[in-house]
Amino acid sequence: MGPIGHLGIGFAAKPVSPKAPLWVLLVASEVLDILSFVFVAIGFEEVSMNLSEFIQGNTVISVPWSHGLGMSVLWSLLATTITFLIYRDRRTASIIGLVVFSHWVLDFIVHTPDLPLFFSGSPLVGLGLWKTNTGLIFSFILEIVLMVGGVALYLKARNRINDLAK
Length: 166
Ligand SMILES: [Zn+2]
What we know:
By secondary structure, the protein is an all-alpha fold. The chain has one domain (3-157). It has eight helices and two strands. The chain has helices at residues 3-13, 22-29, 31-41, 51-56, 64-67, 69-87, 90-110, 133-165; strands at residues 115-116, 124-125. It has a two-stranded antiparallel sheet. α6 runs antiparallel to α7. The relative contact order is 0.19. The model has no long low-confidence stretch (mean pLDDT 92).
């Protein structure tokens, strides 16, 4: 999934976790990609920089540390723990953990099977929505729906809070 869809989840999470600033939720939705960026930089992971090849699943992509299912669960639990220590609020912490994990779920829907369950050598998964043209169009629509829906939920909640403050 591209960044737009992920960020939509961050916006949508704001009304249900008022204690967390919006930027924290937006960062949470992109944590796995941020980690991947770091892991690629230090040589732990490999991602093709050619977008069209990447989408078609023709090139090498190896992202076990950032996007492995097992590691994604671990990153989500880590995010939950860290944010609990900061906000001292179970609900906020669990929602942030879920936002981090939502990234894996959305990537799982669109990626060609290149997301490992654990580390290299473990089965690769992905429903591959990106593989066909129709799927690709559908995934773009899905991204826009997530973004528009997320921002709408966020704005609706913000207006309600402003109305209460009046
Ligand atoms: Zn990703």
